[in-house]
Amino acid sequence: MVQDKSVYVKLFYDGERYYGWAKQPSRSTIQGALEECLQKVGCENVATRASSRTDAGVSATSQVVKISCKGEIRLDALNRVLPEDIAVTHATQNIGRVLSKTYLYVYPERWRNPELVKEAAKIVENEVFEALFKKGGSKPSSTCSIALSSFKGAELVQVSAKGFGYQQVRKIVKLLEMVDQKKVQPCELKALKSVPSADSRWLILVQTNVEGEWEKIESGIEKAKKYINRKLLTIRALSAKWELALRFL
């Protein structure tokens, strides 16, 4: 009798050509590609559940996924059949609570008014973050942590919280952009009724901090590094994003 098996894994993926994590009819998604490849390596009755439901275009270096199926789950074999832009990098049999998640947004321009952006970030952390939760995702904490820095001509917005709602990080970045362009003042952020979302291509889920002991899957880490290094040879506009992604593998 074939036994039920389960394992928790961390996934790397480049979300550029996918319509997000969740399966959709007639569209390429991360979940769809993962489940299809699990079947190729002999798994039956496959089910997967991710800790974060990333949107179309969003990438990840630390998406935590529970894989359940009948049959042996061979992760090295899985890495060989997965598309070049998806890899299993870590695995464990059991996990505890998800303590926090961290997203990195690589804003492709320099701030014109960095002091205003810093002021806005403090207001968003403590007074606006929860109000940006509209639907979908984990119910966030009432506040978040925002770290601002620069890298090779780009501005980095690193946002950490216990949970995030639908497009919440991208809305934070859009608020900072609006303040930077003086379309709104920091003191006016709390009164905004509607906030658009920033471009998803610049966003990476870089860390899922979850209780548990993780084993490195060297075949997946090497696959992810090779993919990123090949990508860096052929792109310019997104190079800062992928150089930073290497640091989180």
UniProtKB/TrEMBL annotation:
Record family assignment: Belongs to the tRNA pseudouridine synthase TruA family.
Q: Which GO terms describe its molecular function?
A: RNA binding; tRNA pseudouridine(38-40) synthase activity
Upper classification of the source organism reads:
Archaea, Candidatus Marsarchaeota, Candidatus Marsarchaeota group 1
- What protein is this chain from? tRNA pseudouridine synthase
The GO annotation for biological process reads: tRNA pseudouridine synthesis
Domain Pseudouridine synthase I TruA alpha/beta, residue spans: 13-82
PANTHER family the record matches: PSEUDOURIDYLATE SYNTHASE, TRNA PSEUDOURIDINE SYNTHASE-LIKE 1
- The record lists the organism as Candidatus Marsarchaeota G1 archaeon BE_D
Query: So where does this one cross the membrane?
Result: none
Q: Which reaction does it catalyse?
A: uridine(38/39/40) in tRNA = pseudouridine(38/39/40) in tRNA
Instruction: Name the enzyme's class.
Output: isomerase
Keywords, in A-Z order: Isomerase, tRNA processing
Q: What is its EC number?
A: 5.4.99.12
Keyword tRNA processing recorded:
yes
- InterPro entries to which the protein is assigned, alphabetical: PsdUridine_synth_cat_dom_sf (IPR020103), PsdUridine_synth_TruA (IPR001406), PsdUridine_synth_TruA_a/b_dom (IPR020097), PsdUridine_synth_TruA_C (IPR020095), TruA/RsuA/RluB/E/F_N (IPR020094)
